[in-house]
Design goal:
141 residues; mainly alpha; 88% helix; single chain
Length: 141
């Protein structure tokens, strides 16, 4: 079979076999990558999508919990301030009552001393067992 020597040199110069092998191997790599991507999308894709949606749900739940927690903390702070105000007013009332107690105790001791001085000045009357006589002594001039 006659061959043209120029054509053989031209094909050898292009390295057609090596180029075609490189392109074929590249094409096989692309096909394998496409197949694995399809398998990944079908098997792991729903898991990833569901995980991402669950994460989004958790994010909304976390933000809701944070806002609820902040509202509860604010109301607790306000309740604490009200309670502290009531405690301080109760402490003022207790202090005032203690002052009144000390005053009444001093008044009681003064009245007791005055009564004792009155009783020491007045002679003791002996009451006779006869009730008519004791009544007569009490009302006699």
């Amino acid at each position: 079979m006659p061959t043209d020597l120029r054509n053989i040199d031209y094909v050898k110069a292009l390295h057609l076999k090596q180029v075609s092998l490189a392109l074929a191997s590249l094409w096989v790599i692309v096909l394998i990558a496409a197949a694995s991507a399809t398998i990944y999308r079908e098997i792991d894709g729903p898991n990833i999508r569901s995980t991402i949606s669950e994460n989004r749900d958790l994010t909304t739940i976390n933000s809701t919990l944070n806002s609820t927690l902040n509202e509860n903390l604010d109301s607790a702070r306000k309740a604490k301030e009200v309670a502290l105000g009531k405690i301080s007013s109760a402490e003022k009332i207790i202090d005032q009552l203690n002052v009144y107690l000390v005053d009444s105790q001093s008044d009681h001791s003064n009245l007791k001393k005055r009564l004792e001085s009155y009783l020491s000045l007045a002679p003791l009357i002996q009451v006779v067992p006869d009730s008519h006589a004791s009544v007569a002594l009490l009302f006699s001039p």
